[in-house]
Amino acid sequence: MKTMVTWSAKSGEGFKEAVSRFISGKAAAPKGVTMLGRWHSVDLSIGFTLYETDDVTRLYAFSTCWADILDIKNYIVIDDSEAGRFSPP
After folding, report:
1. Domains of the chain and any CATH numbers
2. Do 68 and 1 contact (CB within 8 A), yes or no?
3. Whether the Cβ atoms of residue 53 and residue 3 lie closer than 8 Å to each other
4. How far apart are CA 80 and CA 10, in angstroms?
5. pTM of the full structure
6. Helix ranges, the chain (H)
7. Residue 44 Rama label (left phi>0; alpha psi -120 to 50; beta)
8. What is the pLDDT along the chain (89 residues), one digit of tens a residue?
9. Which DSSP helix (H) or strand (E) runs through 49?
10. What value, to the nearest 5°, has the Cα angle with vertex 74 and ends 16 and 83?
């Protein structure tokens, strides 16, 4: 299943610490999770990462490593071809 994660730095030193962790390689996808893409807004207010995994508990565990400095939201998503198979009642 695909999960879109949005994240933004908490106020204070969150941004500096997030950049430090990112540069040091701590933002790599955990074992059992494939990162399909990552995007950063140009105003630095939010970021987006698309993951694919069969075990969302791995994403939960990964999120706990960043929860002290980032506000994180996870959304299970489907693409247009998947959504297009269904018509409204």
Report:
1. 2-82 (3.30.70.100)
2. no
3. yes
4. 32
5. 0.87
6. 14-23, 56-64, 80-83
7. left
8. 999 999 999 887 788 899 999 999 999 999 999 999 999 999 989 999 999 999 999 999 999 999 999 999 999 999 999 998 887 77
9. strand 47-52
10. 140
